[in-house]
Amino acid sequence: MNRLKYIFLCLPYAVIAFLFIVSPALPLRDSFGDHFPLFDYIAKSVKYGFGIPSWIPSSGGVRTGFFHINLFIALPHKLAGYFLTSLFPIAELCAYKLQCVMGAVAVSFGWWLALVRLTGDRNAAWLGALMILMGGTGITFHQEQAIATSYLVPWFLLSLLSIKKDPLYIFPAVALFGLGLSLHYPQIQALSMGLIALAFIALDRREAGRIFLQHGWKYIPLLALIVCCTLLPSLYLLKNAPRLASSFRETATLSGARYDDYVRLNKIGGVSSAVPSYFTQYVKPAFSPLKECGDPVTGNPDDRASFFVGRVGLLLALVGLLVPSRVRWAAFFLLIIFSALTLGFNCIVPLPKYLYFLRIPFIDVFRQWFHFFPMINFCLSALAAAGFAAVIRFLRQRSGSLAGAGIAVILFFQVLELGLYDHKYISTFMTNDRPFPVIKTFLSREDNGLSELFQYKSRYMLYRAWPYAIPERPFLTTDVVNVSGGSDKELAAVGQLCAQDRKEESAPAVVAMPPELEKEFKTKRLIPNAIRALEANPKAFCMKVNAPENAFLGTPLNYDLGVKAYVDGRETKVWRMNAALSGLVVSEGIHTVRFEPVNDAYTVIFWTQILVYAGLILFFFVRMRKKS
User: Fold this and answer.
1) Cβ 585 vs Cβ 552: under 8 Å
2) What share of the chain in percent tops pLDDT 90?
3) What is the CA radius of gyration of the chain?
């Protein structure tokens, strides 16, 4: 009977999610411009046998691990989504939206388990989980940031709550915390899970100390190994940071040397902090169409609509504040802190300022204070679950039948309101347009949106100074300018050539090569119509070259990506061209040329993270099954 009741509770969400999945429309904002194009590219790579690609072709090739700073693409629900198009005859768009739903369900299921531990009441936990699943964190799919930012938090809290009865849960707790530092917005993950851990310890200091003294010290070597494995993506990024720049973040502010620079950094590229009026969305969400919205802060209503968790849940959260319990104080304390972090620089007490002076890791490049809002939703959900549990206890003391009716009525109105909200949101913020395929952006000299978060600094500087020096397609030339002295000298030489009013289609080829190699080029000319059968795929960048004489092949491919080149199957030296791009020397004749990204530490890191996720899933499955 209970299972049937829960099926009816989830039925409205299932119907709305189904209509969302089968719709030919796509959510606006980042889902449209960034997340689906990347998903589509990786899913097609898996479908056609290339596997998970190690590069994104946009802007001449960028490491996949640099997109969203980390291994966002390795979340379990996203991995499942990539393989759906290979295993079943479904379109990439449907697979993309299906994996979004799976991500929201994974977050909400973990949260339900945690709320059962917190309240001891499954019905109360259902109400709290529905606030997350159907509220602003779930069906709205706010740029996928909400799911990625909150993905690990419920399971982390569940692990903390389970350590008392089963000390082995210290392993998933440590692993999840480490994964958070290498996942999406590591600053949000670290602060959120760190604050939750502190609240947990404060609630039961003696028990936490006893558990550590009895069991924790035994596991320190293994815990250290887990931490090292989960931090690999962050260490990889940190190592490569000197080579990276961004169109969002000026090179001078990337280090965040001064607080004034940090404030300016937070104002580049749009919203960084919420404003107090955003909190009114908890009572009355905005549904203005995107083109008609005149929001002076973001210009986008879906940012604000993501706060809504249902007015029924909000009223029960107020009840939860009145119920004497340890959960109340912890949730209320965290609610205040997360609200202040969401307001960011607009808060009366600007916590970002103090965190900057404390030098929290990566804080100098962080500006997304607004995205702490899922943690506010978690706190409200926990308070609502506690309040609902108190209401259920009160009704049961009066009458069992009264309690059953009260539970049904409250859950019905909660699901009804959130169902109408989800339907309204989807009907407002969906578009039938299609984003530009990622693979075609390889031959674009412009800064592409998919790689604007982190690009290679040399190409970034080249594009900003002399965009015509980046070809829109490969070219063959014998007009090579030999410059020694490093990439700075090469860039200066490119500037001199561009300043001489050279035509755009005859992009200069500035290369630091031995003089004897340069002598092989008998003339100084661009060779037209020499490139045939051009192909860029997730595995390689290939072309047919018809060279009437010894010449230099220039490409828009990033040199700093790290590539190997093969001419007719033989590996050939890759030269840095125009201070940022890749090229090679070809002899007279018809050749097949192939560029492949070098397999570096990223490949090992990716599969290490996959193994950590697999271990976590296996651990939770075995322990829960053993308990049941």
Assistant:
1) yes
2) 23
3) 27
Query: Residue 393 carries which side chain, given as an amino acid letter?
Result: R
How many other β-carbons are positioned within 10 Å of the β-carbon of residue 409?
11
The amino acid present at 85, given as its one-letter code, is: T
- Cα distance between residue 616 and residue 625, in whole Å: 14
Residues 161, 102: Cα–Cα separation, whole Å: 24
Distance of CA 575 to the CA centre of its chain: 33
Angstrom distance (rounded) from CA 455 to CA 242: 11
* Alpha carbons 401 and 280: distance in angstroms, whole number: 36
Nearest by Cα to 554 from 600, 599, 519, 586: 586
CB-neighbour burial class of residue 333 (10 A; exposed 0-12, middle 13-18, buried 19+): middle
pLDDT tens per residue, range 183-230: 878 888 889 999 998 888 777 666 666 666 666 667 778 888 888 888
Lateral strand order in the sheet of 575-577: 480-482, 509-511, 575-577, 581-586, 551-558, 475-477, 526-527
- In this prediction the pTM is 0.89
Strand partners for 576? 582
Q: What angle do CA 547, 551, 556 make, to 5 degrees?
A: 95
Give the 3-state secondary structure of residue 66.
helix
Task: Kindly compute the dihedral angle of the four CA atoms of residues 34, 36, 37, 42, in this order, to the nearest 10 degrees.
Answer: 120
Bridge partners (DSSP) of residue 565 are 572, 595
Q: How many of the other CB atoms lie within 10 Å of CB of 62?
A: 25
| Cβ–Cβ under 8 Å, residues 154 and 199 | no
Report the alpha-carbon distance of residue 267 to residue 367 in Å, rounded. Answer: 8
Angstrom distances, CA of residue 11 to CA of 4, 5, 8, 16, 312: 10, 10, 5, 9, 19
Name the token pair of 106: 């994974």
Write down the number of H helices and E strands in the chain. Answer: 24, 18
> Is residue 371 within 8 Å of 149, Cβ to Cβ?
yes
Q: How many CA atoms lie within 13 A of 312 on its CB side?
A: 25
pLDDT in tens, 150-164: 899 999 999 998 888
DSSP string, 361-415: TTGGG---GGGGHHHHHHHHHHHHHHHHHHHHHHHHHH-HHHHHHHHHHHHHHHH
Question: In this structure, are residues 459 and 488 in contact, taking their beta carbons and an 8 Å threshold?
Answer: no
